[in-house]
Amino acid sequence: MAPTTSAMTFLFTDIEGSTRLWETEQARMADALARHDALCRREVEAHGGRVVKMIGDGLHAVFADPAAAVASTLGLQRGMAAIGEACGIPFKMRCGLHAGVSQIRDGDYFGGTVNRAARIAGAAHGGQILVSQSVIDLGRDRFAPGIEFVHLGRVRLRDLSTPEDLWQLVSDELQRTFPALRSLDSTPNNLPQQLTSFIGREKEIAEMKSLLGKTRLLTLTGSGGCGKTRLSLQVAAELIDAYADGVWLVELAGLADPDLVPQALATVLGLKEERGVSLMETIVVHLKSRRLLLLLDNAEHLLTACAQLVDTVLRQCRHVALLASSREGLGTAGELTYRVPSLSMPDPRRDAEPDALLQFESVRLFVERARAHHPQFAVNSQNAAALASICSRLDGIPLALELAAARVRALSVDEVNQRLDQRFRLLTGGSRTALPRQQTLRSLIDWSYDLLRDEERALLSRLAVFAGGWTLAAAERVCSDEIMEEGAVLDFLTSLVDKSLVAAEERDGAMRYRLLETVRQYARDRLLERGDGSAWRDRHLAFYLSFGEEAETMLSGPQQQLWLRRVETEYDDLRAALAWSSAPAGDAQRGLQLAGAIWRYWYMRGLFGEGRGWLGALLANVPGGSSRARAKALNAAGTLAWQQADYAAAAAAYTEALAIWRELGDRHGESGTLSNMGNVAHGLGDYPGARARLEESLVIRRELGDRKGVADALNNLAVLAYDKVDYATARAQFEECLAIRREMGDRWNIAVVLTNLGAIADAEGDFAACRKLYEESLSIFRDLGDRWGMPGTLNNLGEMAYALGDYDEASARFAESLAIRREIGDRRGVAGQLNNLGRAKCAKGDFAGARDLHEESVRILCELGERKVFVEALEGLANVAAGSGDPVQAARFWGAAEQLRESLACPLPTKDLVGYEGRVAATRAQLGDDAAFARAWTQGRAMTLEEAQDFALPAREAQRAA
Predict the structure, then answer these.
(1) Are 433 and 365 within one domain?
(2) For the whole prediction, is pTM greater than 0.70?
(3) In this predicted model, what pLDDT tens digit does every residue of 424-472 receive, in sequence order?
(4) Shared domain check, 221 and 325
(5) Counting Cβ atoms within 10 Å, is residue 299 exposed (0-12), middle (13-18) or buried (19+)?
(6) How many domains does the chain have?
(7) Is the same domain home to 309 and 230?
(8) 108 - beta bridge partners?
(9) 852 is in which domain, residue-wise?
(10) Are residues 335 and 358 in the same domain?
């Protein structure tokens, strides 16, 4: 969001008493409001302004010229009088004008100037126009004749910030006299003036105002620094008209003695003790006949005393309302609690564009406070990502953000972000006039921690081992011991929730708990101080190993979708458990077991690189040996490597795993690894070797009665038969596989087989059956949130569209698939997808674009050593050369591809033969010299694999020559 470069004048209006008018004059009000909207647009645009937006029955407009803004507002008041007379209702508009520099995003304006303009309008009465000093200064000597201004004095607006010099616009056509302005000065109060602006919280303010219409005691709860005090003050300021005898703030933070609570209230009300009468009785007598709002701020350390005072006032003073702020509720009858959330935060993974960031309250707060220390501070492309990260890592806590923003005096935003791992050292230096606990982030949480019982402190520190969130069952298993039994954990956990140190939310019918990151780091430090952190991390690892082993079985069964969500929910903690097991003091053997248990999640979610990283580190930490856990981990590492077309790494992992399975006599493990080794051979183009491994695996699995294993082997053999254009065998094997998958309720693998059957229907030209199979498969993958299966099926839908000549749909499907493959790091899949996109571009006549895509594919394939997809790249480049008018080069590409297909025993699919033969014939005719075409074809066939790669990438050939 960029600031405007010069001062603009902002106009806000609304209709006085509109709620009542809607209730009593609905038909007339609808007619009048339609006329009002038309009048607003007409008058604003006639004076060179722009309507930013209509807000309910009000207007927000902006003008470059303050004199034009004033003239437009005067025209609005004239028009409103005419509308009211025509519709027969009292239709009066209040207007506020203020000028200054603002920030703009997507055509809307934000910042202190805009907020102040709205507050000025809120101070006006119907028919009144209020103008700030800045408008007077900027428009001096340019206002139209007949316009005058009367100074109303320096007024405290309801934003609690600095007062504003206000002027009333007077004219012969306007009412001149009005009641006192609707400001903080018009009603008794002791609300303190704030030196900084109030940011956001529109939703919370609206909800709290509504709740105070339903209850006489509303308690704001929330973590330290979340902004309870500032929010309660703002709500009180906005509701001041509802309380004829004012709003009164009672600050309790400085009190240590509970007996002084009534005295604090009496002091605010100006009451003194009377002989023979208790102070509480004096307070009640004073309040009984008054209509006012009391604010009890920071009550958490005086809960009992505050509850007793509140109970007495509520029972005996029927027109008094109370708004309290506390880390936990007061626990008295009639109380409603409202948990104050963090400020809205960006997601650093998505919201890192400068123009998008300032829609978030946390970012706006950081920016405004940063400018107080560094006036030139601005959000730009260099600091946007770090700023998004800061706001997220600080959980949107206002005090933490303010302390971080103060550091821009000496550090860049990126440097602040880098130091947040040591946030309690970094986030110090708050206002010297603030309460001591508000001057550093650590002292803020110390205040809450010091109020806890010993058991609560112990539980809070133990909960720091959870990285994401946890269930009650997890807390009971991980955090209990001989001193804190499992049954006691719930009571202490509930107490921590009540004290706003633990957040709780219902998810899928169960409660889930979490620590804000700042609290978690604090609790982690306390855990380290206690000296038993390793023991609790070991318990955490043991719990998640048990969870992972249960997930291993469930991810292949009928509850697959449910368990994918469960693993996703627990994934931060699974990562934390793996990280601890990989640390020097951790249990690497258990970590290896955990990684070997959850590898299927990495596979199904396309997290190949991350999974390989964990498995590789843990295998290195537990070298050698012939354990079942090691063989499982090797098998998992090999499968993830195979998926990334890293065939050398896959083969090495499978070879070691096979040796262990055979040493252990584990036929089940042996058959699975043999099947995987067959897939590697297939990827390398070794079809005889692939078939031998896969058939050996199938024999063992049938002997063992391993239905899932049989289905795996059948699927892999069917893919092999498909590549050999043996569709009858492939279909039979896929259908047997599908029957087993359906019997087991394995939806993910059902989707895989449906895709494969769709490919056969596509190859045979049965497009109706093909589309049905693909779309059923895609629906399952999307439902599961699977990032591995989706791109394959999207690609197949693109292939079908291509075959039908719909190149636009084909390109769209290929592009969507490519984006997912890039995201999950599937480099082999990326290369194949680039080829398919290249074919679609070539069909549309974009030969240069197609060449770029095929060459990018070749570069990837050269690095991977992949040959089958390389053949497709050569054929794509042949099509490009033919379309570009170079038949000789096309013949060489086709010759090289033909020879490579023969060496791989991988013929062109039947469905592609007609198109292929037609292109070859047309290109030969284009050259007009059959002998020359044949010579070029023979030259291509004579190329080695390396020479074909050089031919496909001229730059690579030149580099080799150099």
Answers:
(1) yes
(2) no
(3) 777 775 554 444 555 567 777 887 888 889 999 999 999 999 998 899 9
(4) yes
(5) buried
(6) 5
(7) yes
(8) 105
(9) 826-962
(10) no
